[in-house]
Every structure is written in structure tokens, then in C-alpha cells.
Specification:
By secondary structure, this protein is of the alpha/beta class. Helices cover about 35% and strands about 25% of the residues. The protein has a 7-stranded parallel sheet with strand order 1-2-3-4-7-8-9. A 3-stranded antiparallel sheet has the order 10-11-12, with no helix packed on it. α5 packs parallel to α7. The site of one zinc ion has 4 residues, from loops.
Length: about 280
């Protein structure tokens, strides 16, 4: 029904045009999609994607109609660029900013070989170092939604470092508390369901902690990098949330959260908008 994390061919690691994504989304019964091209300010030249965002936003608008199309960006940045990033984001009118950490201690932790190097260098302490980086990122808070909170677990298991959230509960709660205090949303990224962990980033256990700490806004995204994957895992996750008694799913428009109340059976969900 909703997928707020999609990359088209305008992201360096994805394929598919806006049109192909929208067609696929309609085919899969989605009602709302949010495009989130990469905008990386960490490893790359911070200026490199700037025009892409302006141009892609114009293209994106043409596809609004049969389904609701939102336009966001997935940003990653190094703290030294913070002022520059804020200035860039102010210049492009986005519906939401998904803030993600992809690089820690100079290594891409969402990439298999660099995750290997990361754990080779830091061992089990790598998880602690990773969550410290996330806490700093959350503290800076120049985003609306924190993306894939524990994506470090994507490949850690392949290097004999399985992830157990209970072992890092104190650090995770600290991050969730920062999000709550700053009224930020937490993303449930369903790509983990089809990747080595077989579970979303973060798991629904962590989502429950977020609501228990006073969190109000969760978004759902597939992190699709090809049109056929759009919406993958999103309906199942919404149903799991409903089963847990959580019926509030958030989308963003012009940087404001809009909470949808999802009730009823899959395929016949009724959605009410709340502010
Ligand atoms: Zn990401
Ligand atoms: Zn992404």
C-alpha cells in the first residue's frame, strides 16, 4: 500500500525510470510511493548530485495522479559538511529527508567486503562503534526519518558477527530517545527481509521499543533498487504492525508528517488521515 524508499536509475546503484516504477507500483496495488534518490555527502563530491535532484523532482511531478507520488531524498553525510548539506536541502523542495548512515570509520557498512574489513578491524566492538555513529547522526538531526537503523546487521552475520538487538539495547534506546525528543520518524526498511538477516531494519521488536519510548511516527520502505521490487515486504510489515496493535503509519508532505490510520483486512485496508 505504501512504500517510501525507492531508488531509480538516477541513483548510482539502481535501475529503472520513474515511469517504470510508477507502473510497477500500480500493478502491485500500491497507493503511495516516495522516491528517495541517494544524495551522499560523505565519500563523494558533495556537489555531484545536486542538479539530479532538481531535475528528477520535475520529472517526478509528471507522474502524480493514478497514485500519490512523494519526493524525498536519502542523504548520507559527514559532520564536516553539515552546514553545506543543510543549505543544499533548503534549496530543493522535498517532501521528506531520509537520513542514513552508510559509512562508518571510512568503510561502507552496507557493502559486503567493506563490512568484512570493518569487523576485521573492530571485532564485536564494531556494533558499538556503529551505534555511536548513528547516535551522533540522530543528534545532528538534519532529516525527517532515520533510515535503516541497524543495517550493520545486513552483512555482519556473514563474518560470524550475528546481531542481537538485546545486547545493544542501551545504545539503541538512546538513539530512539533522541528521535522521540526531536519528533523524528523511524523507518522500517523491509529490504532486510530479503537479505541475509531475513528481518527488517530494524526489527519490529525495536519498533515496539520506539513506541514505548513515546515515538509517534514510523515510515515503511522497501529500499527498492529495481522496479520489480517496489513495495516488497511493505504490506506484510503493515499487517504485522496491525497485529501488534500499531495502526499509525506516517508519510510526509513538504516536510510535515501526516499520519495514516490503517485498519481492516489486507487489500481492504481503510486509511484515515490524521495530523
Ligand atoms: Zn541506505
Ligand atoms: Zn536506499
Amino acid at each position: 500500500m505504501i512504500d517510501l524508499h525507492i531508488h531509480t536509475e538516477l541513483s548510482p546503484d539502481a535501475t529503472g525510470t520513474f515511469g517504470q516504477y510508477v507502473d510497477s507500483a500500480i500493478e502491485h496495488g500500491l497507493k503511495i510511493v516516495g522516491f528517495t534518490e541517494h544524495w551522499d555527502f560523505d565519500r563523494f563530491d558533495p556537489t555531484c548530485n545536486f542538479d539530479i535532484h532538481r531535475r528528477s523532482q520535475d520529472t517526478c511531478r509528471k507522474y502524480c495522479g493514478p497514485i500519490e507520488v512523494l519526493y524525498g531524498a536519502e542523504i548520507g553525510y559527514h559532520r564536516i559538511y553539515e552546514d553545506y548539506v543543510t543549505k543544499c536541502l533548503d534549496e530543493v523542495k522535498l517532501d521528506f529527508i531520509l537520513g542514513s548512515v552508510h559509512e562508518v570509520e571510512g568503510l561502507m557498512i552496507a557493502e559486503v567486503s567493506e563490512t568484512g574489513k570493518f569487523f576485521e578491524r573492530f571485532g564485536k566492538r564494531g556494533f558499538q562503534i556503529y551505534f555511536e555513529a548513528i547516535a551522533n547522526f540522530a543528534q545532528d538531526g538534519i532529516f525527517d526519518v532515520l533510515g535503516h537503523l541497524d543495517v550493520i546487521k545486513r552483512f555482519s552475520v556473514l563474518f560470524d558477527f550475528p546481531f542481537r538487538e538485546e545486547q545493544y539495547k542501551t545504545q539503541i534506546i538512546e538513539i530512539l530517545d533522541i528521535l522521540v525528543a526531536r519528533n523524528k520518524a523511524l523507518e522500517i526498511n523491509t529490504s532486510g527481509l530479503r537479505q541475509p538477516p531475513g528481518i527488517s531494519y530494524p526489527s519490529l521488536k525495536v519498533v515496539r521499543w520506539f513506541f514505548e519510548r513515546g515515538g509517534k511516527h514510523v515510515t515503511i520502505g522497501s529500499d527498492s533498487h529495481e522496479p520489480a521490487m517496489v513495495g516488497r515486504g511493505c504490506d506484510e510489515t503493515i499487517q504485522d504492525l496491525i497485529n501488534m496493535g500499531i495502526i499509525d503509519i506516517t508519510i510526509f508532505k513538504e516536510r510535515y508528517p501526516v499520519t495514516l490510520n490503517v485498519i481492516g483486512e489486507p487489500g481492504r485496508w481503510v486509511v484515515r488521515k490524521l495530523r
